[in-house]
Predict the structure.
Amino acid sequence: MPTTDAAALGRATDIFKALSNPRRLAIVRELARGDRQVHELVEALETAQPRVSEHLAILRGARLVEARREGRAVIYHLVDEHVAHIVEDALIHADEAH
């Protein structure tokens, strides 16, 4: 079992804060399917580009999403599969509780 010291609990809280928005959950679900450019996320989420960029900045700040540059394109990806599992498990739980 992972440590439960104050620092670890604080980091876990930061993760949940970063995921506390439906659009950010949708971004994580999209990135769980594969790496995406911003315009692909905009299309998939049917959300304006500035909003998607704001949400990506929050997810990057929480170290859940990373970006890499390929030529002129910026490609976003999940840091690891644990992020996707957190989101999917929460959605499954929400369906069961409903």
